[in-house]
Amino acid sequence: MLYYKFSDYLKKRYSAKVYKLPVNLPVTCPNRDGAISTCGCIFCGEEGAGFENLSPSMTVSEQLRINAEYIKAKYKPEKFIIYFQNFSNTYLPLEDFKNYITEACVEVEDLVAIYISTRPDCIYEEQLDFLNYVKNTYKIDILLELGLQTVNYKTLKFLNRGHTLAEFINAVVLINKYGMESCAHYIVDLPNDDIEDVIEGAKIISALRVNQVKCHSLYILKNTILGDMYEKQLIKPVELEEYIERIISFLEYLNPEIVVQRLIGRAPEERTLFCNWGISWWKIRDIIEDKMIKENRYQGKYFNYLNGVKNIGSK
Ligand code: SF4
Known about the structure:
CATH class: Alpha Beta
Number of domains: 1
Strand order of the largest sheet: 1-2-3-4-5-6-8
Order of helices and strands: HEHEHEHEHHEHEEHHEEH
Number of strands: 9
CATH architecture: Alpha-Beta Barrel
Largest sheet: 7 strands, parallel
Bound molecules: iron/sulfur cluster
Strand content: 15-25%
Shape: globular
Number of helices: 10
Distance between the termini: 19 Å
């Protein structure tokens, strides 16, 4: 196994063809509404992290119905994951959060999981109590997707994330305590990071027993602070070869039991100043996989650093 692909995980876990149903809630983000900052992360566009969702002015049920009809006609799925994707989906009053989640669970038959994307500093115990109730009542998996992006706290500051590594650690510890799952979003080619930061990221994610990762390349959107820096030549994206080396090294240090949702990011071309070196994401994925096969590199190759010194020397 080169790496633990999300498609393999879905087959193993649910023995069925599973598809995600995206939902867009009318939420914002504390890093945009002034609670932490009004600027947002330097790479974040007006739409938050999602590009493919329906309008948040539609009800949760309406969005789910429309998306389910479309996906059923196109892919013939057997089961569904509801995916709250955009902005910080736990950054809203608890009662509203409960109502949205309940509405979603009631709407979708053949539901196997709910994935909720949010910031690490927007997780608290009362929400997790409720999600635990949902998990047990509907017999589904609950996974919290957390934007981490890097473990280098200086780079986190440069990105204006508004949180440090500590908030991420705290969120994962809480999620683990409640028996739920987590996924870390990670940008492998941040200009201020080097390959050592990326390897440390894989090690920290593994040590914390995060369940899944979603890796991104750094795409530069128009009308963002990062876009402005790019146009003024204050930052320079890393070369594709460097990205490939970083992502493979990341995988080599990652616990082989961690599911890899993505190896590379995607963004609509018309909204970007720079995205994936002008190459389709799947071609880059193929280049990464070919290189891994050729050089005998695989996820977990150097996962020998936990559980004490007895493993030292096995590299
Ligand atoms: S935390 Fe997410 S939604 Fe908020 S500013 Fe950053 S990227 Fe945008």
